[in-house]
TrEMBL record, chain A:
Pfam families: ETF (PF01012). Residues 22-212 form the Electron transfer flavoprotein alpha/beta-subunit N-terminal domain. Its cofactor is FAD. This is Electron transfer flavoprotein subunit beta. Belongs to the ETF beta-subunit/FixA family. It comes from the Bacteria. Transmembrane segments: none annotated. The electron transfer flavoprotein serves as a specific electron acceptor for other dehydrogenases. It transfers the electrons to the main respiratory chain via ETF-ubiquinone oxidoreductase (ETF dehydrogenase). CDD domains: ETF_beta (cd01714). Keywords: Electron transport, Transport.
Automatic annotation (TrEMBL), chain B:
SUPFAM superfamilies: Acyl-CoA dehydrogenase C-terminal domain-like (SSF47203), Acyl-CoA dehydrogenase NM domain-like (SSF56645). The keyword Flavoprotein applies. Signal peptide: none annotated. Residues 5-116 form the Acyl-CoA dehydrogenase/oxidase N-terminal domain. Its cofactor is FAD. Keywords: FAD, Flavoprotein, Oxidoreductase. Belongs to the acyl-CoA dehydrogenase family. The keyword Repressor does not apply. InterPro entries: Acyl-CoA_DH_CS, Acyl-CoA_Oxase/DH_mid-dom, Acyl-CoA_Oxase/DH_mid-dom_sf, AcylCo_DH-like_C, AcylCo_DH/oxidase_C, AcylCoA_DH/ox_N, AcylCoA_DH/ox_N_sf, AcylCoA_DH/oxidase_NM_dom_sf. Residues 226-375 form the Acyl-CoA dehydrogenase/oxidase C-terminal domain. It comes from Arthrobacter hankyongi. This is Acyl-CoA dehydrogenase family protein.
Length: 255, 378
């Protein structure tokens, strides 16, 4: 079994995120870390590996050179090897382009199962896993809260309006997981010391047989900072407080 | 040696993630309820915190002392009491790993390094603290075993540990007549005093360990007869810088909390941090902590290299760092005013926890004695 986990490096969620002058996310404004959702995706793969020796887990990312740090962290958690697609022409690539490159990279790597996060913490497009599946002509099990991998298939459940969908697919397949899925482990000291000796391959667009497509990027037409939070409504009880409170909740469809 | 390498940065980051998630939110509650979180210690074991500098051969993490001081500082930022406990446990694991034979290492290091089992270090006695060579616990040879009698005082983890390393007298020849023994829990004649009521360190139990005709096989002797005092002292070099690192972490946390508080606390028409008298206090805290950090790293490096001045540097670093940490915590209380005295703000706990670091693993007076003697002997 070979599992490829798709990884994105994002600004740390715990710090304030900033936009640059062009309205794009300022990536250097806060510390860059592996997207937590990808750590959960990796955890799902590692749990299968823990129970099934001989399973190979590869983490794969597209990003700038700095992404090496994120991949090393994933290696220290237990992934066997890492692949970074690094090409300056890919800076700012849009979802369509990103998914095409990722699809080519996983194809080059070879896999039985691809595990991704359902959406990134920064861009939150939520479409890359589906687009990668489409490029590869494979089934997608999207936004799984639980995930079970067997030698031939993958299954899981995802929440939908008013219910839960239980889905499964034969391998090879693509799945994406939500933040309700497996809680990621901490890397241990041995893992950290071993991580730097594990293989980390850097490949370019040319290695994938692709050429630069300068137009395939997102552009921001307008960006507005989130308005400062306004003060809330204060209700002073002059005999009408209960009624006012009920009206407020009703007006906001909370009751 | 002044810049952390990539591995060290990754180690510190991992410990910070663990300490922030598993220790910090519970530290006040554990202190208040005197809860010893053995389940969380097991998680710490998964990380590799149980045998930080024990060799990888039997399950240790195989890191250096220079790595260890960074790790313990980071742990102590979240909870000095738990960080210090883990340091003591590590001293026990290292002693078995460094001085044990293959059978002893194979039996104990794996379960101790994973923190499935815990270890206690039993040197101090009711009548022998700083003057450890005067200890009176006795081990008498009895066929293929030894019979141990005596009382050990202030033993961290006692009652919860699976293994007790007991320093006992096998000959009346002062420090040369002391031998180290591995005493597993459950041996007939081994019992424990009540959990001591203490100023701090409430998240770990402290009890007497009482040995009454405890018979252990000769195979449980750690090293040769008469080598116990040397083993005890070698263990303490590392214990001292770890304890210094724990004080540094506590003091650093106190400083950071105080900076944040003085920025937002307004009085006399502006934030208190604008008061130069208070700013100078912060600067002094920062300078003392940073000096201690520098000395600690130098001592750890000496221990890693087995340098000739290791004992002197470890003693200096222990004294300087434990004083700096306590002073920072105490000043932090003062700068928080009345709020610093409230348990809710978490500063009085840091001061209570760090106070004992000036006393144990060789009191700070003994550290001065060690350093002073090296001057006198030159």
């Amino acid at each position: 079994m070979k599992i490829v986990v798709l990884v994105k490096e994002v600004p740390d969620t715990y710090e304030a995120r900033k936009l640059d002058s062009s309205g794009m996310l300022a990536r250097t404004a806060s510390e860059l870390v592996p997207d937590e959702i990808n750590e959960r995706a990796l955890e799902s793969a590692l749990r299968y590996q823990d129970a099934h020796k001989g399973t190979e887990v590869v983490v794969l990312s597209m990003g700038p050179e700095s992404t090496v740090k994120t991949l090393r962290k994933m290696l220290s958690m237990g992934a066997d090897s890492a692949v970074l697609v690094e090409d300056s022409s890919l800076a700012g690539a849009d979802l369509v382009r990103t998914s095409a490159v990722l699809a080519a990279a996983v194809q080059r790597e070879g896999f039985d199962l691809i595990v991704a996060g359902n959406e990134s913490t920064d861009g939150r497009g939520g479409l890359v896993p589906a687009m990668v599946a489409e490029h590869l002509g494979l089934p997608l099990l999207p936004s799984l809260d639980t995930l079970e991998i067997t030698a031939e298939s993958v299954s899981g459940s995802c929440a939908i309006d008013g219910g839960t969908l239980v889905v499964n697919a034969a391998l090879p397949a693509v799945v994406s997981v939500t933040e309700r899925s497996a809680e990621a482990r901490f890397p241990n000291f041995k893992g950290i010391m071993k991580a730097k000796k594990k293989p980390l391959a850097k490949i370019s667009l040319a290695d994938l047989g692709l050429s630069p497509e300068p137009g395939a990027r997102s552009t921001v037409t307008a960006a507005v900072e989130r308005p400062v939070r306004a003060a809330g409504t204060k209700i002073v009880d002059e005999g009408q407080a209960a009624q006012e409170l009920a009206d407020f909740l009703a007006a906001n469809r909370l009751i | 040696m002044f810049e952390l390498n990539e591995d060290q940065l990754a180690l510190v980051e991992t410990v910070r993630d663990f300490a922030t998630a598993a220790l910090a939110p519970n530290a006040a509650k554990w202190d208040e309820t005197k809860h010893f979180p053995v389940d969380v210690l097991r998680d710490a074991g998964d990380l590799g915190l149980g045998g930080v500098y024990a060799a990888e051969e039997y399950g240790g993490s195989g890191l250096t002392r220079s790595d260890a001081v960074l790790i313990f500082e980071e742990l102590a930022k979240a909870d000095p009491a738990i960080a210090a406990y883990i340091s003591i446990h590590n001293m026990v694991v290292w002693m078995v790993d460094a001085f044990g034979n293959d059978d002893q290492r194979a039996e104990w290091v794996p379960q101790l390094a994973s923190m499935e089992s815990l270890g206690s270090y039993c040197l101090t006695e009711p009548g022998a603290g700083s003057d450890a060579a005067a200890l009176t616990t006795r081990a008498v040879r009895d066929g293929d075993g030894y019979i141990l009698n005596g009382v050990k005082q202030f033993i961290s983890g006692a009652g919860s540990s699976a293994l007790y390393i007991v320093m006992a007298r096998t000959a009346d020849t002062g420090s040369r007549g002391i031998t180290a023994f591995l005493v597993p829990t459950g041996e007939p004649g081994l019992s424990f005093g009540p959990n001591e009521k203490k100023m701090g360190w409430n998240a770990q139990p402290t009890r007497q360990v009482i040995l009454e005709d405890v018979r252990i096989p000769a195979a449980n002797r750690l090293g040769a007869e008469g080598t116990g005092f040397g083993i005890a002292m070698k263990g303490l070099n590392g214990g001292r810088i770890n304890m210094g690192a724990c004080s540094l972490g506590g003091g650093q946390a106190a400083l950071e909390k105080t900076v944040a508080y003085l920025k937002q606390r307004e009085a006399f028409g502006g934030p208190l941090i604008n008061q130069q008298a208070l700013l100078f206090e912060l600067a002094d805290m920062d300078m003392e902590l940073e000096s201690a950090r520098t000395l600690l790293r130098r001592a750890a490096d000496a221990l890693d290299r087995g340098a000739g001045d290791t004992v002197r540097l470890c003693a200096m670093a222990k004294r300087v760092a434990t004083d700096a940490g306590f002073n920072a915590a105490n000043t932090a209380i003062q700068l928080h005013g009345g709020y610093g005295y409230l348990a809710e703000y978490g500063l009085e706990k840091i001061a209570r926890d760090l106070r004992v670091h000036q006393i144990l693993e060789g009191s700070n007076e003994i550290m001065r004695l060690i350093v002073g003697r090296t001057l006198a002997e030159d």
